[in-house]
């Protein structure tokens, strides 16, 4: 299995290198000749569109629509009267914020006791 993987890797490297050589060879070729411009042929004239006769529309008979009675709407109800004086509303006082207790912080870092290694058993 390992020899197959090595063979595939070697084949991939060989193909990659040969592509690089082919690309370098293409870059070293002389430039291709330019394509000559071709003459443009003249277009034929467009055909004229014939004019069509305009048809005459017959007049439609008019019919008289019967008049319908206009419905009458009931009167809108009147708005209730609102009081003009609004009573003042007083809010209760806000509760006071509790005080944060003062916690003393240590200014020195406590030392970690050093443990001595066990004695060597000779």
TrEMBL record:
Superkingdom of source: Eukaryota
UniProt biased composition (Pro residues): 30-58, 68-79
Alphabetical keyword list: Signal
Signal peptide start-end: 1-22
InterPro entries tied to this protein: PELPK1_2
Start and end residues of each stretch annotated as Disordered: 30-79
Protein name as catalogued: Uncharacterized protein
Taxonomy of the source species: Eukaryota, Viridiplantae, Streptophyta, Embryophyta, Tracheophyta
């Amino acid at each position: 299995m390992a020899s197959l993987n090595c063979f595939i890797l070697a084949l991939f490297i060989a193909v990659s290198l040969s592509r690089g050589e082919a690309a370098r060879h293409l870059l070293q070729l002389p430039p291709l000749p330019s394509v000559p411009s071709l003459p443009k042929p003249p277009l034929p004239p467009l055909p004229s569109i014939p004019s069509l006769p305009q048809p005459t529309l017959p007049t439609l008979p008019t019919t008289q629509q019967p008049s319908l009675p206009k419905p009458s709407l009931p009167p809108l109800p009147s708005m209730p009267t609102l009081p003009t004086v609004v009573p003042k509303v007083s809010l209760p006082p806000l509760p006071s914020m509790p005080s944060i207790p003062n916690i003393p912080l240590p200014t020195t870092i406590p030392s970690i006791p050093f443990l001595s290694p066990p004695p060597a058993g000779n």
